Amino acid sequence: MSKKMKYSEEISNKLNNLLVKNYDAEKGYTNAMKNVENPNLKMFFKRRATERSQFAKELRTEILQYGELPEESGSLKGAAHRGWMNLKSTFTTNDEEAILEEAIRGEKTSLDEYKDVLKDRTLPPSIDAVLVKHKNAIQSAINTEKVQEELVS
Question: What DSSP designation does 35 have?
Fold first, then answer.
């Protein structure tokens, strides 16, 4: 296997990992949206889900450009995370604050994963730009979620 092939496979594995996490986040936000009454929170979660869907599309495009195959759905870990979120919202009778806290926790994990991939200083500029854009949007979402949390509590 040539060095170039190995390299593009390595990059696509990292991107596929982020792609799966974005599928998971999108599903998590869609779920959260269904479990809250507050119209502002509903809208907020809907925007986050749409944003994550867009991130996934952009990552798929980058992976395909490398001649690799993008993942098609979320991870088992994500399914467990979504399940936990379902369980928690059921037990707390749609406790909006708890759902928001869980969303913030998930976003912080995403942020760390993006930062980790961005440590690779050999990423092609197009991928680097996409990842930085996503990372900044996630950071912004975390800040907004913290504001939302103040409003809910």
Answer: T
